[in-house]
Amino acid sequence: MPGIGLISREGSPVANAARTEAASWLTAHGHTAVLLTRESDTTALSTVGVVIAFGGDGTLLGAAHAVAVAGLDVPVLGINLGHLGFLTEVSRAEMLDALQAVHDGRTRRETRLMLRGRVERGGLIVAERLALNDIVVTRGALSRMIEVDVSVDDAPVTHVKADGVIVATATGSTAYNISAGGPILLPSVDAMVLTPIAPHALSHRPVVLPATATVVLKPDIDPQEDLVATFDGQFGVKLQPGDAIIIARADRVVTLLRVSNRTHFDMLREKLRWG
């Protein structure tokens, strides 16, 4: 029987304590608990049938990225030990019940679209990364409003003057996208959303795109300015003049494991006080 991988938020005593308790429970119930880190290699990940992340959404995003990079179809379950925890739906108080559900096989799977983004510079790829939530081009702390040429499927779309631009999945629509005024997309919607951050022109509104689209962002960069492309808020690349950020659907997906009967609208009401 495959083991159950456990990954906790680094440097968090609360997360580590929850992981230790979970490991003891799983071992007592006949499972092999495999302690993982974000840097765990494919060999370690290939020994598990489920990954459980202890922390906030950032911890789950890191775990999902590790699984996707390894090319494995391993579902990820989140135990929320952070603040909001929209993706990590299981609370600390519900942890043992969730483990029992995993043990009994009373779970359901949700497949989520991922994005693959790359930064091209002078015809070379200088960075490439997967993202479950979003890829964002934004200004640094000392930069002014930025300008970005946007094209979709090789067709010019617009020239945005804003604090930045977000390209989000349906999963990521409830993250940075919603704070920037973008729409909420249900996870089952096979789409991505392009959202300017605090645009200079009120006519620049979020646009929902098919998941098959390829988005290219070409920011106008002054050498003195500090612009960065971030992937799920986990990884950042400092941009240089002439850089292009190419974003498209990844050839891999992430599977989230659900152990409750909460609907997405339940999560919106509970976590975001929506409606």
Written account of the structure:
The chain has 275 residues and is of the alpha+beta class. It folds into 2 domains: 3-107 and 259-272, Rossmann fold (3-Layer(aba) Sandwich), CATH 3.40.50.10330; 114-251, Tumour Suppressor Smad4. Helix content is 20%, strand content 41%. The chain is built from 6 helices and 17 strands. It has helices spanning 13-28, 42-45, 57-69, 95-104, 176-179, 264-272; strands spanning 3-8, 33-35, 48-55, 76-80, 90-91, 108-121, 124-131, 134-139, 146-152, 155-162, 164-169, 191-197, 207-210, 215-220, 227-231, 235-238, 244-258. A 6-stranded antiparallel sheet has the order 7-6-17-14-9-10, covered by helices on one side. The protein has a 6-stranded antiparallel sheet with strand order 13-12-11-8-15-16, with no helix packed on it. Strands 2-1-3-4-5 form a 5-stranded parallel sheet, sandwiched between helices. β6 (108-121) and β7 (124-131) form a beta hairpin. The longest helix is centred in the first third of the chain and has 16 residues, at 13-28.
